[in-house]
Design a protein that fits this description.
Elements: H1 3-35, H2 42-71, H3 85-88, H4 96-99, E1 102-103, E2 108-109, E3 115-117, E4 122-124, E5 129-131, E6 136-138, H5 143-172, H6 177-185, H7 187-219, H8 224-235, H9 241-254, H10 258-266, E7 282-283, E8 287-288
Antiparallel strand pairs: 1-2, 3-4, 5-6, 7-8
The chain binds zinc ion (2 copies).
């Protein structure tokens, strides 16, 4: 194994550990601060059990999605794909003609919708973008996990925010003099909760914006690179009406209905769309070709 590759693996492992801690620490804090105290009261015991299960399930889904998106190959030349992949795969690219270029770095023909990633040092199939946060490219085979990671992270933060605020209000509004005095005097605790609340709001807005953007792109059968590239071409100079029309036509050509568009990355429409399990990539008429495409 080359030194470069070892460094990449160590860096990725370090990054993954850091992000996993970022997920686990707030979870443990919420359990300890908001959920467990409700267990001491008979009237809130059952709701405490319910919240414990829900918080644990959501945290597990966030972690599984994150580990999968960062460790799954986004798809490249060397994956064990059938040579007929590009003929079989129902891709309709908005830039298909322009994308059929030779990659001088990989020294081979660049497939449709593939782009060379300078961080990964290879061409990635249906590359969306290279994400520093996951230390990996987001491409054909792991975009589903990326979207699910954003979805579950967004849901978890919203839920934890609700628990944090509910518990804080409960404690602060407690009419017991001793309790009230203690809580108002505990400035460091209030500061911690305040900081946590503000951080949660900021992170929630960022993650939800990314999620909405990903859903919009998938719904239109586009990647971030294609969208940004088209925007640059269109808005980098004066846009003539026919250019705008051309872009809209290209968009319409790629758009084969949102179910088909999502299937490109999420696989056959089913409950598995919302679960962090490998998608069944499909071909003509949504017929699964086992081992042809997904075995990477
Ligand atoms: Zn390349
Ligand atoms: Zn990359």
């Amino acid at each position: 194994m080359s030194g470069n590759k070892t460094t990449t693996i160590v860096a990725r492992f370090g990054l993954q550990s850091f992000v996993i801690l970022l997920v686990i620490i707030p979870y443990l804090y919420i359990l300890n601060y908001a959920i467990f105290p409700w267990m001491h009261d008979v009237t809130t015991f059952m709701s405490s059990v319910f919240h414990s299960i829900l918080a644990t399930a959501l945290t597990c889904l966030v972690l599984i999605s994150y580990i999968l998106v960062s460790s799954t190959s986004p798809g490249d030349f060397n994956d064990t794909l059938s040579p007929s992949y590009y003929l079989l795969y129902p891709i309709s690219s908005i830039n298909s003609e322009e994308d059929k270029k030779f990659c001088t770095k990989c020294n081979q023909q660049k497939p449709e919708r593939a782009h060379h990633c300078s961080s990964c040092k290879k061409c990635i199939l249906r590359m969306d973008h290279h994400c520093l946060f996951i230390g990996n490219c987001v491409g054909l085979f792991n975009q589903k996990y990326f979207v699910l990671f954003l979805f579950y992270a967004s849901l978890s933060i919203f839920y934890f925010f609700y628990l944090l605020v509910s518990r804080s209000l409960e404690v602060l509004l407690d009419s017991t003099p001793q309790q009230t005095e203690y809580n108002f005097l505990d400035i460091s605790k209030l500061f911690l909760i305040g900081s946590l609340t503000i951080s949660m709001v900021i992170i929630e807005i960022s993650i939800t914006s990314m999620l909405v953007n990903q859903l919009w792109l998938l719904g239109n059968n586009m990647t971030t690179i294609e969208h940004e590239g088209t925007k640059r071409k269109l808005y980098g100079r004066k846009v003539l009406p026919h250019q705008l029309q051309q872009y809209q036509d290209q968009l319409r050509r790629s758009d084969k209905g949102w179910i088909h568009n999502f299937s490109t990355v999420f696989g056959n429409p089913s409950l598995s769309w919302i679960l962090p399990v490998p998608p069944h990539i499909l071909k003509n008429g949504y017929q699964q070709r086992k081992g042809d495409i997904m075995e990477v």
